[in-house]
Design goal:
Number of strands: 27
Distance between the termini: 72 Å
Bound molecules: 5'-O-[(L-methionyl)-sulphamoyl]adenosine
Oligomer: single chain
Shape: flat
Low-confidence stretches: 558-594
Structural class: alpha+beta
Number of helices: 24
Amino acid sequence: MNTFYVTTPIYYANSLPHLGHLYTMIVADTIARAKRQRGIETYFLTGTDEHGINIERAAEKAGRTPKEQADYVVSYYKKMTSEFGLDTAHGGYDIFMRTTERFHYQGVSELWRRLARARTPRGNDAIYKGHYEGWFCAACAEYKTEDEYQKPKNEGDPPTCLIHDTPLDRVSEESYFFRLSDYDEALLSVYESRPDFVRPESRRNEVMSFVRSGLQDLSVSRLTTSVSWGVPVPDDPAHTMYVWFDALTNYITAIGFGNEEREQKVGFEKFWPALHLVGKDILRFHAVYWPAFLLAADVELPRAVVAHGMWLDPNGRKMSKTLGNTIELDVLQKHFSIDAIRYFVLREMVFGQDGRFGYEGLIDRANSDLASGLGNLSSRTLTMIGKYCGAKIPSGVIPEDKLLLAKRTGVDTDETTVAGFIETARDQYLLHFENLAFSRALETAWSIVSRADKMISDAKPWDLAKDENQKQTLGAVLYRAAETLRWLSVLLHPIMPGASQALWSQLGLEGSSAQINPSELKWGELKEGTAIGDVQAIFPRIDKAKTMEEINADQKPSGAHATEADAVTGGAPATKPEPPMKHATEADAVGVTSFIEIDDFAKVDLRVGQVLSAERIPKADKLLLMKVDVGEEQPRQILAGIAQYYEPEKLVGRKVVIVANLKSRKLRGYESQGMVVAASYGEEGRPVIATFTEDVPNGARLK
Ligand code: MSP
């Protein structure tokens, strides 16, 4: 049976989604829609990776259980995928996979059991018990070798992760190992015999040289006493599985591996093998470890592993919450249409390479390629059909006796010129698409837009309309333009489903362009006499200055960060996590903000204070209760959500900045009469209290 299976990585349930996550989903969604359009039964998986120490820690920090933490993040993902039209209801993913599902536990356990029985190509046990000694990065969920970490400055401190810049965990414990070192030859022969297995080629070369340089056995379990939030190792509950072993396996458990019910519902036999889309940072897991596990378990390998690049900011810097250059999905969604966003990311990033994302670039492209390009072609064509042809698709034929006159006025009377161009462009477009070269495919599609624009400006329909003898010639030119639009609507369906359908309906066509196989398009099938629909701008022009101003106003202020806010969220009861509010990404410091007047600033009464005492509060692991002298008769009582970062004793005597005119409020039964100002940085929003290096009296005002 003709089926197709495409996957995104499953996203860590420790933090909220951002542009990088959205991007892979858009790519997978585009591929899935293109396959469906060709009548191929397609299964599209996305989801969340919910186990492991990192989730456990994020949950603890937020005062939730790990499952509550996962539910919280999933609720946000579901909201995001719905808003961006990527969920099942909008024709997007077929499953939002969660590794906490029972069927997943069963499937992973089945894979483990198979591995535990397996022999490597060199005749050894594929899994064995040993002792692991080394460094582990919780954020990467990866063991780090010496060349993969930064040595500590002070002896005795742990090394730090080169990617996350966070301290590594020392692991020294009993562990099950997967004998990866016995799979180098088998893997190399896969890469060699299947040059398309890892794509693009540059990544394939990297993977091959990594394998050639020698593989080490992989620790695939942790003691339950160290990491309890995971899938138990079958027949040995003292161990939980390594989170990547559990996570990678989701690709097969989702469709029925190791679970009869899922097999009935979806079908492992039916859909496997998958095309895996991943970011280049997690390629090793997908192109080395995963195929090795599957080889050991005697399960067919994936169809391919395709790695895309990273989104950088417009200056080419990595996006990070600390730099404040991340793209917030709710801001994106508020100011741009889904189709414009899809078009931009697919057009802008050369698949496989890093791309740059900036709001200004997005507006420029939306205005030039969409509003002035395709949008203008469609509105001018349809408006002219309305005006000159009674809002019905005219005939595409120029009668014999009118040919000469038509030629004389600059019309190319040979219909096959434009039809031939478009057919060739369609074939190229589909080829690029098949190779996942979306940017090139779109360039090709836009060559069709330019060709049609040229045809119109050469023929000048507005002049033809002045001569009754040219009526049919005018009709033929507009027919060709309309037929071109029909083709574009079909070709662009997977990229911009909403706009393509709007175009389809405006052409007066029934059904959906999603149902037309682009390779079966035939020139001239647009029926003469079809009444066109209401003509509306498919891509309204974006006012750049106004939109940028609004975006800047929408982004959260950077820099100084009030810790009371942390205290409120951090100290909130750990029951029922609410889905995050609009704008509640976990990034706190965000780029350039909107400007305020000096009077606005003057409303905030910032004062110098001195901490007289500080203590922890029972059952509120984030809050410190402080008495602060701000030069008033009585010291103020202030609560701050900094207990995880500051020892209370060390704060005593310290000069701080407080917001003195903030309405007092109760937190955990204690009144807080102001708040302490702190910077916030890093993934976890670590607070750093603002202080003074020079002597300054208590109560002095900051202005
Ligand atoms: N949970 C693992 C994947 C397990 S798959 C069996 C994981 N999760 S993640 O949430 O950290 O990242 C998911 C994906 O987001 C990765 O493919 C990563 O490359 C991608 N991106 C994260 N930041 C990105 C950009 N700035 N740009 C593009 N993609 C990026 O890894």
